[in-house]
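TA notes, week 10

Several of you asked for a full example with nothing omitted. So below is the full record: structure tokens for the whole chain, then the designed sequence directly under it. When grading your own attempts, check the secondary structure regions first.
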């Protein structure tokens, strides 16, 4: 039947699950009532209908915790607004620890949660059993209690959101399949359906496990794969308490909650299998996958030991349904690459119910206000790499995502599936030198080097891991002698054309209109002054510039350039990452080593800091740039891939007598954090401005034509900042921070850690974190005064604060 669709709408949302309906609801609450929701079957029929309904705030980042906090606000107010119950009730959640390592993780999780304003309470075995009386406490070390959490009904919540959206003017159409996205001039301008086209200013893809297929209709890469996901519901069990806290026993890969006099037992167990990897069937609706009790039985038996009442309980339902997962475990929320005004919200890794109301709220604010209300670098769809949409890669990697969901999340933990995909031209050379590889976006990267006789493997812990001393030796070699890094995974973008300078001047906050052979450190800002990219720009000649980007950000940086090269700009950008190796030779002995391999004059007078030029080296030529990310004298060498091995061999053979040491990414991180060098996605991102991040020195305020974000930044400069990135050194050399730990000043919570690493030169853990000031224009001295503490695993550790780098504060060493 023809549903009589409108020919246009301000916003078209594709997908009628909880996230699509939440987006419509919150848009209409913001006054945008010309909203259409298209659902190919019936509302909730994809994966929403079988959600277990848990609401838990223990998420891995501050941004994703904020999403759940927004969801909680919606759960608490929705019924009063719409008259339809969500079934939400506050019961609390208990996370069990049955090992010392899990107890350490929960204690750290408690501190991290507090940094986001979330109430938590650590309980012993007796107090845990008192809250969940069905528990067998044998082996329980303790638990972490979240008193403000609960559970609800996913279908009821979605219907309530839909009613709220419709009463404010949104139109919802079921049994209407969207077949594609209309595009014009790099923008999404509507959707196609089986009943005709709908023009729109904004398109939102909330298609759940169909996200990969629907994204492909507009050439948008969405790496999702559905996996089989289980829960069991028992027959009624006489006498069980009502509204007990949800019990999460991660060591058993399971959770338990009471449900209408029965118990539900859900699983995040290893060994799940992909469902329909060749594409989700178009007619899939309220899908159930055949159960596999041989697979599930051993996990259920473990939960019988944990909750003995299950032994005599009959099973009313053994449910197995599909849930979509992503390769890195983070969902996709935000504007997609290559298309303006096309937003994506998909791949929620089985947390769609608890995140959906908040995600819809964020999307609505984003669309209405033109920017995200929450800093969410981790969910950015522009992080996607092409290989991540490969079916075989997805099958392997997302299976591991689910396998590890309830495992201990160790610092520096490495994925093991779908490996050995992207390799530096020097991979085998560094492997022979003892490299222990980690993986980032498919790249195999030397994280540390194992001396002869040392096992090339990680032994994880929250303290000194097995590679600690080996990485420390690499760190010291760079500080005291000379070290060699293979940084070939860093992104390299060639911007060229008649208008290349004009385009980059508009994008860059710093002035890149320099002479050829100079490198400029700069940020790219959004209209609100937030940092969208942190890069270096090397001017090669009058019309060519080379942008060096981080390996994790090259795709979003490439997209930013594409979106800001206008139709009348005579300029192009090309990703040339794979054509060039990048060797970094760093340390006080780097000049002595390299000078013996080239006819070029590497003296400070002839080759000052910030210079980039092509030089001979060995039997070939490389582009040598005097720059540093470690705080020492050194050169980055861009080497054509075909001669990379020769250049590497030339340097290592000459460097052996001088004590040249290979160094990996762990040492790179410890070196850069001692020098307080920022890392995009950790210390800076789109919610932080250069003034807040202490990067005002890289802003060319008065350059001709200005730059994107200048007006907002100037307003902030005039008003004064209210937060500042500060460097900290822990007083206790045996304590380790990693990220998101709370920062206290004179006993008051003032911020959280952005990133941290042990600084081997300073002999203690060093952290960067944002500190909130009491008012705009607070003087610099305030940020460095007062008694600071950083909370680690619920214990507060005193720390020294500094706005200047604690190592080489005058930056004399790189310019020596």
């Amino acid at each position: 039947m023809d549903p009589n669709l409108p020919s246009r709408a301000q916003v078209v949302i594709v997908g009628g699950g909880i996230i699509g309906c939440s987006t419509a609801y919150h848009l209409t609450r913001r006054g945008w009532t010309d909203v259409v929701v298209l659902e190919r079957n019936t509302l909730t029929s994809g994966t929403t209908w079988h959600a277990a309904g848990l609401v838990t705030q223990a998420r891995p980042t501050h941004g994703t915790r904020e999403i759940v906090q927004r969801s909680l606000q919606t759960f608490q107010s929705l019924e009063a607004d719409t008259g339809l119950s969500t079934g939400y009730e506050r019961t609390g959640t208990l996370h069990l620890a049955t090992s010392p390592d899990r107890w350490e993780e929960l204690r750290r999780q408690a501190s991290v949660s507090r940094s986001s304003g979330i109430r938590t309470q650590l309980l012993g075995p007796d107090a845990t059993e008192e809250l969940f009386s069905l528990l067998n406490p044998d082996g329980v070390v303790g638990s972490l209690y979240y008193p403000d959490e609960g559970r609800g009904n996913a279908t009821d919540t979605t219907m309530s959101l839909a009613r709220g959206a419709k009463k404010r003017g949104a139109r919802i159409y079921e049994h209407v399949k969207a077949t594609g996205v209309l595009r014009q001039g790099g923008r999404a301008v509507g959707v196609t359906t089986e009943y005709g086209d709908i023009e729109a200013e904004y398109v939102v893809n909330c298609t759940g496990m169909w996200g990969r297929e629907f994204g492909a209709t507009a050439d948008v890469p969405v790496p999702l794969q559905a996996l089989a996901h289980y829960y069991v519901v028992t027959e009624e069990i006489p006498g069980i308490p009502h509204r007990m806290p949800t019990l999460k026993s991660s060591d058993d890969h399971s959770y338990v909650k009471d449900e209408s006099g029965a118990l539900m037992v859900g699983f995040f167990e290893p060994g799940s299998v992909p469902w329909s990897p060749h594409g989700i069937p178009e007619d899939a609706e309220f899908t159930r996958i055949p159960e596999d009790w041989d697979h599930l039985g051993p996990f259920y038996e473990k939960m019988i030991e944990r909750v003995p009442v299950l032994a005599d309980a009959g099973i009313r339902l053994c449910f197995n349904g599909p849930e979509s997962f992503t390769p890195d475990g983070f969902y996709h929320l935000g504007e997609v690459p290559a298309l303006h005004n096309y937003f994506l919200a998909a791949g929620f890794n089985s947390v769609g119910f608890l995140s959906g109301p908040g995600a819809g709220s964020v999307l609505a604010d984003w669309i209405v206000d033109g920017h995200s209300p929450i800093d969410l670098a981790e969910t950015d769809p522009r992080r996607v790499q092409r290989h991540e949409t490969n079916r075989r890669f997805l099958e392997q990697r997302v299976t591991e995502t689910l396998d590890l969901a309830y495992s201990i999340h160790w610092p520096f933990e490495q994925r093991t599936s779908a490996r050995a995909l992207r390799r530096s031209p020097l991979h085998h050379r560094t492997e022979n030198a003892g490299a222990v590889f980690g993986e980032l976006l498919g790249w195999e990267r030397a994280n540390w080097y194992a001396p002869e006789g040392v096992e090339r493997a990680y032994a994880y812990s929250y303290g000194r891991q097995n590679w600690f001393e080996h990485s420390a030796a690499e760190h010291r070699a760079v500080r005291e002698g000379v070290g060699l890094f293979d940084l070939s995974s860093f992104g390299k973008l060639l911007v060229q054309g008649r208008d290349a300078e004009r385009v980059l001047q508009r994008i860059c906050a710093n002035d890149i209109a320099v002479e050829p052979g100079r490198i400029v450190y700069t940020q790219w800002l959004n209209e609100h002054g937030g940092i969208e990219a942190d890069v270096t720009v090397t001017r090669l000649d009058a019309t060519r510039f080379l942008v060096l980007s981080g390996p994790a950000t090259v795709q979003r940086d490439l997209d930013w350039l594409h979106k800001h090269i206008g139709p009348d700009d005579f300029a192009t950008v090309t990703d040339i990452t794979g054509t060039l190796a990048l060797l970094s030779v760093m340390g006080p002995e780097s000049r002595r080593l390299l000078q013996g391999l080239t006819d070029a004059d590497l003296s400070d007078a002839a080759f000052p800091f910030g210079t980039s030029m092509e030089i001979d080296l060995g039997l070939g030529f490389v582009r040598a740039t005097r720059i540093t990310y470690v705080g020492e004298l050194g050169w980055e060498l861009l080497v054509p891939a075909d001669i990379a091995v020769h250049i590497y061999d030339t340097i290592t053979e000459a460097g052996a007598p001088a004590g040249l040491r290979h160094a990996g990414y762990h040492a790179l991180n410890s070196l850069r954090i001692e020098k307080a060098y920022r890392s995009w996605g950790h210390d800076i991102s789109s919610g932080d401005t250069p003034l807040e991040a202490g990067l005002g020195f890289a802003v060319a305020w008065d350059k001709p034509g200005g730059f994107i974000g200048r007006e907002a930044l100037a307003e902030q400069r005039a008003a004064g900042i209210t937060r500042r990135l500060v460097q900290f050194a822990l007083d206790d050399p045996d304590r380790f921070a990693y990220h998101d730990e709370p920062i206290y000043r004179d006993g008051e919570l003032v911020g959280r850690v952005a990133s941290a690493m042990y600084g081997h030169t300073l002999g203690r853990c060093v952290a960067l974190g944002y500190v909130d000031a009491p008012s705009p224009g607070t003087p610099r001295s305030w940020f460095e005064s007062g008694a600071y503490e950083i909370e680690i695993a619920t214990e507060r550790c005193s720390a020294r604060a500094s706005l200047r780098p604690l190592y080489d504060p005058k930056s004399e060493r790189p310019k020596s």
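The longest helix spans residues 62-82. Use that as a sanity check on your answer.
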